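Hi R.,

As promised, here are both runs. First protein below:
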Amino acid sequence: MADPTQRAREHRAWYFYDWANSAFVTTTATVLFGPYLTAVAETAACGEAGTTDDPCHGDLSVLSVPIAAGSVAAYTVTFATILSAIVLPIVGAIADRTSRKRHMMAGFAWTGAAAASSMVFVAGSNWGLGVFLLIVAAICLGCSMVVYDAILVQIAHEEDRDRVSSRGWALGYLGGGLLLALNLALVTLEPFGLSRSDTVRISLLSAGLWWAFWTIVPFRGLRDRPPTGVERIGGSPARRAFGQLRETLRHARGYPQTLLFLVAYMLYNDGVQTVISASSIYGNRELGLGEDVLIVAILIVQFVAFGGALLLGRLAGRFGAKNIVMTSLVMWTVVVAASFYLPENEALPFIVLAVAIGFVLGGSQALSRSLFSLLIPRGKEAEYFSLYQAAERGTSWFGTLAFGLAFQLTDSYRWSVLVLVTFFIAGLVVLSRVDLRAGIVAAGNEVPRSVIGRR
């Protein structure tokens, strides 16, 4: 481990990848691209995009299977996640065997940023290009985050991880919020005679460029370290990666608390990520709110989440990280259930719920990441985080699939949202059964005070 000055310098560089990719997560994945892709799909299905007062209910045909235009965005995220389930574990296995983690992280980041920037060309009825670019960007984001999270274990002691993880999430929300504020002005004002479609596409371009530019900071500020604890497996790099992954899965049953925590996380984070990715569609298509209102709501979430991540990170040291995460899940359940009753064409109730979501969003995600890092056997950080990332930042698929199916069956996004409550309740129940202390000891890590809180 580096000296304190070098370690603090690397912490600051590491934070900036959250700052970099959060612009894509907020501007593109959360706010603009879902409704925009839906409108493009509706243009292809109905000849012209539906309005919020009279939306299109036509179907598209994919391999002779009818797909509701309103479900295209949710199904696209679902498909990207299925591909991620295949790709991410292999990426994790390779990352654990290399000393060039920062190069891997940056390579995936810049590829994803190129796809995100290319969304500026999605227009008219060209929904297929939008689907392809979203899949590429989502998978590259997941791959880069696998390596990024694994680097956390290398640069931070067990006692520091709640703090470092929380600051990274907080800076990410701040960076995403700042770019979103600029895009809010652009979309709302429509300057220079630009249409709403033009301003949306320019905003998508800005998010990709932001992601690419700020990735330079962690790429230059982090240092390479040799891999540790990996099995010696012969053959080609691909064979070695598959071999290590096979060995990890074979021995994973020896870490039951790690697997139980992962199950809990995948359940409740399915709900979190689906709320994030589908909130703009719900507000726009079900509640009749315009993009400007949605951007204001998400902008509020970003800045509230900045403070919430830091505050919940502090509370974790006093009351225990697991207790704080469980409390946040109770709040998530209440907020999502309340969203079922939101009135149409009224922005204020939607904004109030956005504030509540922002408060618990950053802290629950940051503390989950740091808790999971303590449950990973040394030398397998990227492999285990590849499984973790399968449910992270919009790559959950049970939630998006349930959301899309509920809409297709009921023709109402209200029931789609209400279905998500089950994910938070199920995750809370499973998390309550995780013995963190036993899991940390079994993984060979030190038990930090933040796990149980101050006595």
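And here is the second one, sequence first, then its structure tokens:
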Amino acid sequence: MPRQADIARVAGVSQATVSVVLGGNRTGVRLSESTRLRVLEAAERLGYVPDPVAQRLAAARNNLFGVYTFTPAFPVDASDAYYPILAGVEAEAATLGKDLIMFTASSAAPDRIRRTRLADGCLFLGRHVPADAIGELLASGFPIVYIGRRTELGGRIPHVGADYVTASAEVVTRLARAGHHRIRYVREPDDAPSSGDRERGVRTAAAAAGMALKVIRTDGADLDASVVRGWLADGVTALVVEETDTGAVFQATWRALAAAGVTVPRDLSLAVLGRPPGAVEGPVISGFEVPRRALGRAAVRLLASMVEPGEGEPLAHRLLPCPAVAEETIGPVP
């Protein structure tokens, strides 16, 4: 393979001149047109091909975006909550001509997260933020984007999330329009921002409609037929259930309803704040779509705007709307 030194010898110039010409003379060095053409002709005659790795190092970029998740492994099941997000990430990266590095370690240790510097910037997924490690990356100016709204570190973390507050409030408003006044909101005990946003939307809409609302925090282990019968005895006519990546609470609620012999929505209306995980036999569960694929694509675009800034400042915090799902499990009060 010919080198720049070979081009310099054939063209009768210094190697520094060859480097300037082949690099596009970004520094504005004064060169005669005849010298520039002589270098280019020599390079073409020798069949010189620039080293892409050297070019990227010179530009201080690798055209690589990292993806770091704190789950044990990347999903391969299309029903997994993370699958459409990662599909969106891959699709948008391909559109922008970027390659991806998948960081497979689930550790939140700072020394593991520092490895993301192999890329030009990194996307993060996970219900909780390792504040020390992420704060260190932010302080260094390394471009990062979280997929999911984040409130940690004083709200300084760039993110693309779903507007769970508005979508959750609309679900409860649909129940109010159907005549429901006494509802239960069943959610996991975890206090991730997405869970807090959903509960805030539920409480806001319930208060506006004058509903009697009670929030149940559970991991699903204590949900059985007797609990459901107790709700019915208390006059509860509708359940609203949180969707999470595990789906534990929704699945436990669905099993408890079946064990109690409850038919939805004839005996009890049911809504999920998102989409129920996996296949559920029966009617389409009312709720909303989480735009996961769109989240992945928008996060890549935001990261690209931070790595290669153009005109103006990129919008560092963005929430996408969640389209409503058919009301097959929201019915009138029995």
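A quick note on the second one: The chain has a mean pLDDT of 87. Let me know what you think.

Best,
J.
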